[in-house]
Amino acid sequence: MAAALVNLGPDATPDDLHALLAAHDYLPRQRPTPRQTGLLLDWAARLRPLFDEVDLDRQVDLVNELLAESAARPYVSRHHGRAPHLHVADERRPLEERLRAYTAAGLATALCQDATRLGSCARDGCAVVFVDGSRNGRRRFCSTRCANRVYVADHRRRRAAEEDRTRSPAESV
């Protein structure tokens, strides 16, 4: 959810946020308001550095700052016919408070399990972040599409360089 929130971008609308929440099976009592959306987009901007940072000590400092700010009291909940499950914030609290606690706790968990799994796309110009759930943990791109763009560009660059090297002096005149 933290990665998806960051990927919404600064121009997201309350409807965009509602769609994201629904896609993550997060069922708020009410649709997000413009104010809540703005607060959560500001929060997302603070989450972003965790995906770009490679220094583990800095990542730990960042996530601890987020956890301190979103300080919540975990408790067990049962709602919507679900089995008991852990919440990191009281479901009666405002949406922005609950999502801050949820995303901070989720990022803390990911960081503690394997900090190298938080990443951002390696394609120049792509700002998408992700949590690497692959088996080998070596994901570099947000999607196959971005990976293919980079690989095709690299192939074309190598091919052009090879053609330049093999071209005879008479051909280059």
From TrEMBL:
Cross-referenced InterPro entries: ABATE (IPR010852), ABATE_dom_sf (IPR023286), Znf_CGNR (IPR021005)
Superkingdom to which the source organism belongs: Bacteria
Domain Zinc finger CGNR: 117-159
The name this protein goes by in its record: CGNR zinc finger
Provenance organism: Actinoalloteichus hoggarensis
